[in-house]
Every structure is written in C-alpha cells, then in structure tokens.
Amino acid sequence: MKTAQDIMTREIVSVSPDSSNRELAKLLLSHNISGVPVLDDNNRLCGIATESDLIYQNKKYRVPAVITILDSFLFLDSPDKMERELKKIAGATVQDIYTEAVVSI
Q: pLDDT tens-digit profile of 72-102?
C-alpha cells in the first residue's frame, strides 16, 4: 500500500497572503494544479488557496454596469462607486480569498 510520502510533492509551490490573485491564477495554471498552501513570512501555514477560491471571489465583487451609446460610456452607478469596485477587483490579494481551515495528514 502506498503512503502519503510515496505520492506527495516534495517541491512546494506556495503563495503568501500578499500575493495577488492574478499571481495565484498564473501559478495554478503554469503548474497544472488546483491549489497551493498559503505561507507567511516565516513559512508557517496560514491556509490554502484554490481554484474554487478564485471562482468564488468573482461572486463577491459587483462589476459596475456601463452602457455605450454613440461611442460614449454611460455609468449606471456613480463614477466614484465604479472606481471603488474596480479597485477592489484589481487589487484583491490571496489574503482576501484563501481558506484558513486546512485539513492535513
């Protein structure tokens, strides 16, 4: 019977809580993996960040509604509100989405 040691990955691919969600997505794609441990500056486990966390993150933010008429943009919300929402989406970090409760063996 194989043990965890027989099948585990020895070279750890991880992110920090301050990593951007964009960095996380690139890492998952480039290594063909679905999740990574989130480690603090002292390499202590903070949690896990997964593809599902990224997908769920998109549901937390509301993309502001905009319509175009004759090559002009009309904001259905105030421009300030739109700017705040876009900054939230663009500036989101792993810290905003990762799961702290980790099950390990």
A: 666 667 777 767 666 666 668 899 888 998 8
Between β-strands 35-39 and 45-50, what pairing exists: parallel, antiparallel or unpaired?
Answer: antiparallel
Number of separate domains in the chain: 1
Question: pLDDT at position 11, please?
Answer: 87
Q: Is there a domain that residue 102 lies in? A: no
| Residue 15 neighbours by CB under 8 Å, 6+ apart | 23, 24, 27, 36, 37, 38, 39, 49, 94
Q: How many C-beta atoms lie closer than 10 Å to residue 70's C-beta? A: 4
Residue range(s) defining the domain that contains residue 28: 10-97
Give me the CATH number covering residue 77. Answer: 3.10.580.10
Tell me the backbone φ, ψ of residue 2, rounded to 5 degrees.
Answer: -75, 150
